[in-house]
Amino acid sequence: xQFLITFEVFETIVDPERFEQAxxxxxxxxxxxxxxxxxxxxxxxxxxxxxxxFIEVDSGEELLTFLAPGFNDNCKIQVYPVLPWAKQxxxxxxxxxxx
Length: 99
Prior knowledge:
This protein is of the alpha+beta class. It has one domain (about 1-99): Alpha-Beta Plaits (2-Layer Sandwich). The chain contains 3 helices and 4 strands. The longest helix has 20 residues, at about 15-35. It is elongated, with a radius of gyration of 16 Å.
């Protein structure tokens, strides 16, 4: 299963000490993801305090290990399941042929 995960540090984290804690926690989470061999692509957004990772995982439980605690505690997270175009076409053709 492939997922695009976007994250943005909470806007309420403005105190320099608290921001440093958030930065350390999110960097630790990113190191876990990048070192796992499951990351397809990643990057930082230039317009906000955040970024994205595109990962392939085997289960929802594994996905959670990549989100918690660093992102969950410090960021607004959005998770999007991703299908390759060809696979989506196969599935939709199957669905429409049954109707």
